[in-house]
Design goal:
The chain is mainly α and 158 residues long. It contains 5 helices and no strands.
Length: 158
């Protein structure tokens, strides 16, 4: 009876190994946000490609162009930071490090990071997407304006 009680006690006190689940979550997190980054990159490329068909300046074009360029720079910084964070996840030596680094990666993707004296601001994935939506909307409006006026297209600054 004592032996049976000891086995039950040992089994009750053992903690399940959550390492495989944490590693799977970390890899799934990276894959999820990588997919979002790739879709944003495709939208940037499409916006630039379609913007090159514009042959004159319309109201708001300079502002949208500046917003797109600024956001493009932030997007590159976000990709770089997320790449470093993903490398940190891959090199985590303990489960606590893995947990902390995965959370940092997720926070960076979801919230971005404000600027400080030692680093520039990094927009979140949602912020980049919102700017692209504004730019795509302006471009659609510009193309409609050009079609209505009989001209080729409007001008979006590179």
């Amino acid at each position: 009876m004592k032996r049976y009680l000891l086995v039950v006690l040992v089994l009750a006190c053992t903690k399940p190994d959550d390492g495989p689940a944490l590693r799977e979550e970390a890899h799934a997190t990276i894959a999820y946000y990588d997919g979002q980054l790739d879709r944003l990159d495709t939208r940037f490329q499409s916006l630039v490609r379609n913007g090159q068909n514009i042959d004159r300046v319309l109201a708001g074009g300079d502002e949208v162009g500046l917003l797109v360029v600024t956001t493009s720079n932030g997007f590159r910084e976000l990709r770089k930071e997320l790449g470093s964070a993903a490398a940190g996840i891959s090199s985590a030596a303990t489960l606590d490090e893995l947990r902390t680094r995965t959370e940092h990666y997720r926070d960076l993707a979801e919230d971005g990071r404000g600027s400080a004296s030692d680093h520039p601001a990094v927009p979140s994935i949602a912020e980049v997407g919102a700017v692209l939506t504004v730019a795509e909307s302006w471009l659609a409006h510009a193309e409609h304006e050009m079609a209505s006026s009989g001209s080729g297209s409007a001008m979006l600054a590179p």
